[in-house]
Amino acid sequence: MEKDVLEIVIDWIKESQKIIVLTGAELSAESGVPDFSDPRINPPIRDFRASREVRAQYWKKIKEIYPVLVNAKPNPAHEALAEFEMFGYLDCLFTQTTDGLHHRAGNSLVIELHSSMLWVTCTSCGKDYTMDSILAALEKQGKDIPECEQCGGDILKPPISFPGQPLPHWEVREAWMRLHYCDLFLIVGAFLENQPASSFPTLAKEKGAKVVIISERQSPADDYVDAVIYGKPSQILPYIVKKLKEGIPVA
């Protein structure tokens, strides 16, 4: 009997030596976390720098929605990818998410392409703060905009890219380099409409890797990758890991 797509992908995983995984906002959504890189949350960087009112509106919004991230927990998709790493199937995990849930689930081989919402940087002097400490200071001081305790500047922001800013250079470069050497590229719940992620499947295929998409939604890459599995990552990934574990001998 002919194997279905899911079984074929599991065979590819077992046969691969260097597997790269790219995750995206679908994983955050399944944990109830908004996409903090969404332009509807983040103002254009030029407006943010130029207007105190824009900065105040931004920080008001973050104070309202950040507690959702604090209270969120990794879902079964995050947990499955942590097991994926633990059993040696994962070379590296790229993510478009900014919520840190992969780290909380136990992954260590993580490259955050859009950086992290857990930190805040002063754009004047470069001093870093935790988001928790910044929001606590705003609450304690009754201010609407944080100020840098080192230089006194008031243009502080998470290191994620606002509209008009490029993505973090090192992370994108590292992703490109690693894709040159992988033999299987799994894309899980990621958005592929914009660069650089839109070029990742093409690059991986050009270098000889198989490319698989696992997602609830269609993407521009669906027609030319090797396999597409439509569905919730939190349901599909645990099933894949369960099947992989069945082949691991117990010492």
Structural class assignment: alpha/beta
Widest sheet: strand ordering: 3-2-1-7-8-9
3D shape: elongated
Helix content: 40-55%
The separation of the N and C termini measures 33 Å
The CATH architecture of the largest domain can be named as 3-Layer(aba) Sandwich
The radius of gyration over CA amounts to 20 Å
- The topology string of helices and strands comes to HEHHHHEHEEEHEHEHEEH
When the domains are counted, the total is 2
Structure description:
By secondary structure, the protein is an alpha/beta fold. It has 10 helices and 9 strands. It has 2 domains: 1-33 and 74-116 and 167-251, TPP-binding domain (Rossmann fold, 3-Layer(aba) Sandwich); 35-71 and 118-157, SIR2/SIRT2 'Small Domain' (2-Layer Sandwich), CATH 3.30.1600. A 6-stranded parallel beta sheet has the order 3-2-1-7-8-9, with helices on both faces. A 3-stranded antiparallel beta sheet has the order 5-4-6. α5 (76-86) runs parallel beside α10 (233-246). The longest helix is centred in the first third of the chain and has 20 residues, at 52-71. The protein is elongated, with a radius of gyration of 20 Å.
Structural topology:
Blueprint: H1 5-15, E1 19-23, H2 25-30, H3 45-50, H4 52-71, H5 76-86, E2 92-95, H6 101-105, E3 110-112, E4 119-122, E5 128-130, H7 131-141, E6 156-157, H8 169-179, E7 184-188, H9 200-206, E8 210-215, E9 227-230, H10 233-246
Parallel strand pairs: 1-2, 1-7, 2-3, 7-8, 8-9
Antiparallel strand pairs: 4-5, 4-6
Brief summary of the model shown:
With 251 residues, this protein is an alpha/beta fold.
